[in-house]
Amino acid sequence: EVQARFADYHIEDCVSLHTGTDPKLNTLEPQIVAVNELATLNAVFGTNCETKDQVLEAMLANKTGSALAIFESEVSINMPEYIRNALGE
User: pTM score, two decimals?
Assistant: First the structure.
């Protein structure tokens, strides 16, 4: 769906589109949760959630704070494959 919506942009050599493959993971937050362990997520966000669903709820409720926590954390997280591909990793 996303690929089709932006197909006209692929005519430019400097433009590429990278998306996740699971349509159920429709934004960055669920994709980050899917590729990381619960303990890692709790460490990054300073939470004590018992499930990944709880972490996701907290991330979606505070997207800016979640992004800042990832940026400022000394704990490394895994990024979804499409982001790693976009960065050439």
Answer: 0.80
For 10-76, the three-class secondary structure string (H helix, E strand, C coil) is HHCCCCCCCCCCCCCCCCHHHHHHHCCCHHHHHHHHCCCCCCHHHHHHHHHHCHHHHHHHHHHCCCC
- Give per-residue pLDDT as tens, 6-39: 777 666 677 777 777 787 888 899 999 999 999 9
| Tokens linked to 19 | 């998306």
Which residues touch 32 (CB under 8 Å, ≥6 apart)?
Answer: 41, 59, 70, 77, 78, 79, 80
Express as a percent the part of the chain with pLDDT over 70.
91
